[in-house]
Amino acid sequence: MSQSGELVVFYGCMFSGKTTALIDYISQRQLKPNEFIVLKPEIDFRAGKDKIATHDGKVHDCIAYSSGMELQDLISPFTKLIAIDEAQFFDKLILSELRRYLNKGIDIAVSGLDKDYRARPFGIIPNLIEMAHHKHHLKAVCQQCGADAEYSYRMTQNHVLVLIGAENHYEPRCEKCFNINQ
Ligand SMILES: [Zn+2]
Fold first, then answer.
1. Cβ proximity of 171 and 155 under 8 Å
2. Domain of 81?
């Protein structure tokens, strides 16, 4: 009889504390170093190639994952948890792989943006939310009115979607304040 793993998803807008929540979750698991891996998309150079960092300064070692890498090469018989930060940038192909590891009893924890700066569903996060056993919708503080914020408002005219690590270009906003300037 196989025991399936659990999928935990931390999602929300920018500055909602997603990475902090992911790092806290990893810490709470109290796993040995060889029992978990942490991945982030190679595109995120915010904290150097092999670290994830939170806005409040927490840092964790991780693997910068590119599309050419095989997840199976990173997993060992000891792996109990796969953690993924900024999961919105991962290709849809990873979903079936993650399902496979859940079926093998490996837990998966991800964090990511559920909506892009145009409030459209972002990458695989909606799929992961649907698959999740435990989901945590994190909120930031609206920089206009102080209400709970669920949207990442882009303050620059740069139309490049991927402005990761470019926090100065975004501010969290509630739905009302987000829509004022759209
Ligand atoms: Zn507001």
1. yes
2. 7-138
